[in-house]
Each structure stands twice: as structure tokens, then as C-alpha cells.
Amino acid sequence: MLFDKERSRLQDLEFRQKDTHEKLATREALSVQEVLFQCYIHGRREDISRRLIAIRPLGRTSLLLAARKGLLQLTYLLLRVGRLPVDAVLDDICCTTALHEAASHGQECCVELLLCVGADLLRCDAYGQTPHLLASMFGYTSTYYLLMQHHLQDLPCRAGTTAAEVKNNFDTYLHMYEKCGHVSLSPIDRHDSERVMRKILKSISLVQLQSETQKLIVDFTRGEALEVREVVMTELEAIMAKVSEADPTYSGKLKMVGSSHDGSKLYAPDEFDVNIVIRKDNVRINVSKRKEKDAHLKGTKEISVDADQPQLQGNKLMNNLYEEVQMCLTDHLLKDARLSFVPPGLTSTQVGVAFTLAWQGKEYPLLLVGVDLVPVLEVPWQEEIARPRLTPDSTKTIQLSNAADGSWRCSFAETEAELLKQLKPVERLPQLMGKFLLSSLKAEPWMPQHKKTFCTWFAARDWNIVVPSGFCFKNAFLFWLQDSRTDQEEGNPGKNLVAVFKKMCAITPADPKEVFWSRKIYAYFGGECEGPKPGNGAPLIVRCLEENLNDSCLDALS
């Protein structure tokens, strides 16, 4: 029965969700679904009216979830039994309706249902974007053509583009992320994860990897890439000015970190990590030994913050940020016409909030921009926390981020960015080559399904290829960098790249050349305060790279 199927999907979704706001919304949708279904099957008119009054405040969030996830029966019940207006605004930040949300998430059947009950095709969101335009912006071709069949008028959005133009711009954006190498995978390959991974890796020679990587580096010192970064930061400052006015706790300085700051961003300027650096008086930091049963998962030491300010207690620093930003954005419009909020707009992360934006310029006709905003508490570097050799001399402080469970974590994003920003060209090349190699083995979240499926293997269902995480590669690189500066050997870029991936592998003592399992990698900075992560997939990458090196040597000799 469809009711049971959708209920099972919602229960599974609630189980997998980590964010408390999303969990609550899913839990509410389950309650609404039960009430509406019972009203539809058994309810009398007076019972329906009484029950609908009770669930009406939850109707908008439930319809938002149903449209995004393509829950057809729940959508129908909310509109027909719950009597929600089909064109009601569901997201106050983007001013989107159910049709906008379903189209932007590629829920084709849900789009068809909404059209059948009279949803307005030409309804625009806060930035003049129609459902048709949003479908093309996220690369949902079949949804785009479905909506095109229902109307001929293609209205331009605030940025001046139409749905047809945005569809072409999405193809251009996707082409920016084209990896080098042409791979043909047979059905037999698809049933073996190692064969899929090996074929992709074999399609990229080390020479090609080195040359392509240097072409793909985003230059933030000039052109539209610089404009994107400046506009994003300007808009963030305007938003945070409103937030800090409502809650002075967040009146810290905005500091960009991550790849868009340290010079290692590849492909396009579409990812920004920003810290809100908060400094408070009368804050006491305690570094204590963690319980032995938790030490192997979370690190040997834990940090706690003792502060008089109620805003720094529990998970309030992280949790309140989402609520304050959401309130401030309900009546906020981004100033630059090239930038707009797009679904899901604002989401909560484990340590802060994330914005989903779209940039429509000239050099970059379309970018789906992700911005992570994290509040961090800046405190003096604690004696109990080790100071690795690569720590910049100017670094005297550490930053702490507040997690959803109320705990505090070391955040060394700014320290890492300052270190990586000063790399020599010979040191930076293995870092960039490694990032490019790993990106070739996985698809970006916004990419079409056929691109995501390419980097998978099949056993009863599709599984992603197992590759080392960004955390593992970054910290393996830092450990290699420390060793290379000690040895004062520059080496070959290909050999250096192999050496970085070997940091994620356990080597057989009798034969150092044979890599036979992945090992856990600790954080280079603050490793005692954070659990290690396994470098899964690294041994196979090392084997393929070494074979590639040997082939290159043979070619040179011949």
C-alpha cells in the first residue's frame, strides 16, 4: 500500500538524519500523514475539521518535505484533505511553492501531480525564478521538458536569464568539471568495485594529471572568480550584521578558510568556507583525558568550555545561529542581481549553517555555490594540545566549534589555510594532483544521476566507489609535508603523490613496497582531540599510481 511505502520512507529518513531541525520536520510529517490518512479513510466532517485545526501549523513544513522527496500520497492528502493552497509559500527565504521545490529536486511525478491540481507554472520566487527555470538550473532535463510542454512563455529571472538559457549554462557548468581520461565500463566491470576504480585510474596518466591540474586551479586574484568571492563575502557581512544586531553573540569577524582561501580550489569558484570568529572574556577552557571506551573513536582528550554567558552553554552557539539566520533571511534580499538563493536555501550542519546559492555571470554563466558558515570561539592555544612542527610561528590561538550534541571540537581550519597558503610550488603540486585524482573518482552532489552512477559499482544496488575522504588526504598530505621538509628532498611530483597516499596505508614490514591494507589517519592538528578516519581505497590508488610510474619509466627508456 502506498501509505505504508511512504511511511516507511519517512521513518527511514528520520533514522538517517543527523540534524535536529530536519528530524523534527520528518517526525511532524509522520504525524500529519497519519492524521490526514485516517481522516480520508474514516473521518466524519466534524472530526476532520477538528483534526485539521490541530495539524494546520505543521502543514507547510510537511508539504515542503513531501515536494522535495516526491511523496505523492502525502502531497495529495495535504492539498485535498488538509486543504493547503497549492501555491502557498513553503520556504520564506526563497519564497518557493511546492512546484518550485519539486521541480528543483527533480521530482517529476510530484510536478505532474501539482500541475493537475492547478499549481501556477509562472509563479516566481523571491529572485524571479520560475519552477521551469529551477528545473533547468539543477540539470533535471526530463522535468524541464515536462514543464515546457505545459506552457510556452519563458520568463527571465532577476539575473536576466530564461529557463532555456539556464539549461545551456548548466551544461557549460558541468563541462567545467569534466575529468581527464575517457573510460568505457562494461556490465562485467560494474559488478567489481576494484575494476571500476582501476579503469578510471588507468585512464589518467601522471603526466596528464600534472598538466590538467595546473589548468584547473581557480585564480581568485582576478576576473569573475574574485568578484564571486567578494560578492559572497559582502552578502554574508550584510546578513551577519542583521544577525548580530538581533543576537550580539555573533558579532565576530568573518574569516574565509578552506580551499577558496589557501589557493587549492579546482574547477570553479563555487565553494566557500567561512568562520565567524568570536572572542569572549571570562571563558575557561578545560582539556581532560577522555574515557578509555571512547578514546579510539573520539580521541584521547576532550575539550569543555566553562563560561558565564548562557549563549556558550550546551549547543546554543550552533543551534541558535540557524534560528537567528533563518529569521533574518525571511525579509532579506541579496543585493547583487547575479546571486540568488535556491532550494534548499538554508540548512543546518553539524557545527553551523549552510547556504545554497546560484551565481549567474559572464565568465561563469552558472555556478551552484555552497557556503558553510561556522561560529568558532577563539581562545589561547592550550598547553595540553600538541603543537606540530608545521604550525606557523604567528599562530598563538586555536578555535573551538560547538557541535549539535553540546560538545566542543578543535577547529584548525584557519591554521591549516595559513599553512597551505604559503606552500612552495613543488609542495603544492602533489596536493592539487591528489585533490584532482580523488575528484575523478566521485561525483559532485549537484551533478545529474548519470554522472553519479558512473562512479559506482553494482551488487543488489548501486554503491559508491570507496575512496579516501578529504579529511584523510588533507592530513596525510600534512604528515608527508612535514617529512619532506625534514628530508629536504623535492622529488618527482608523481612519486610525491604516491608518498602522500602511502601515508594512508599500512606497509608489510618484510617488503615495504607491498601495500596491503589501509590504515587510520589522525588529524595533523589536534589529533589527540579527534578520532582517526580509515584511508579506505588508498592501497589500490597506490598500486595504480606505481604501475603508472613504472610505465612512464619504460616509455622514457624506449
TrEMBL record:
Which SMART domains does the UniProt entry name for this protein?
ANK (SM00248)
One Pfam entry name:
Ank_2
Q: Does the keyword Cytoplasm apply?
A: no
Origin species, per record, is: Portunus trituberculatus (Swimming crab)
Repeat found in the keyword field: yes
Residues in a coiled coil are: none
Concerning Gene3D superfamilies, the annotation shows: 3.30.460.90, Ankyrin repeat-containing domain
Family annotation (PANTHER family): ANK_REP_REGION DOMAIN-CONTAINING PROTEIN-RELATED, TRANSIENT RECEPTOR POTENTIAL CHANNEL PYREXIA
Q: Tell me which InterPro entries the record gives.
A: Ankyrin_rpt (IPR002110), Ankyrin_rpt-contain_sf (IPR036770)
Query: What keywords appear on the UniProt entry?
Result: ANK repeat, Repeat
Name the record gives this protein: Uncharacterized protein
ANK repeat feature ranges: 97-126
